[in-house]
Amino acid sequence: MQHEICIQTNAEQEIIDITAQIEKMINIKQGICTVYVPHATAAIMINESADPNIMEDILTALDKIIPAGKWKHDAIDNNGAAHIKAGLIGPSEQIPILNGKLGLGTWQGIMLCDFDGPRKRKIIVMVQ
After folding, report:
1. Dihedral angle over CA of 16, 21, 26, 32, nearest 10
2. Residue among 126, 120, 115 nearest 67 (CA)
3. 43 with 89: CB under 8 angstroms?
């Protein structure tokens, strides 16, 4: 079954835990959940969700590796770094469904990463 989530981001760069919204969509005992974001400057990531400092640390590390303002694409949209960050993290994740629940680790959550906000982002969730 296909579901959609729409998230309005509030900052230029932001990582948002979307695990709770996705958990509500799980209606089978066993299977797979695919989470996909159809945007070139956003990504989906699984990481620790208990400590919000992790999200800040990830953004800081990505900014050091991929600084803004150095990319050829900046001449068009001034968001070259956002495209590179999203490409490295990737647009999707797959999570097993085990006994009717997402098979995430104790501290893991599913994160929407927006590198070119604030924007309205669509997330497609397939539960099979």
Report:
1. -20
2. 115
3. yes
Token pair 């900014």 is found at 63
Burial of 111 (0-12, 13-18, 19+ CB in 10 A): buried
**Higher-confidence position of 70 and 14:** 14
- Within a 10 A sphere around the Cβ of 121, how many other Cβ atoms? 23
pLDDT at 70 over 90: no
What CATH number matches the domain at 2-127, 3.40.50.2300, 2.102.10.10, 2.60.120.460, 3.40.190.10?
2.60.120.460
The pLDDT of residue 35:
99
Phi and psi at residue 26, to the nearest 5°: -80, 115
Q: Please give the mean pLDDT across all residues of the chain.
A: 97
What is the pTM (predicted TM-score) of this model? 0.95
| Residue ranges of domains in the chain | 2-127
On the 0-12 / 13-18 / 19+ scale of CB atoms within 10 A, 18 is buried
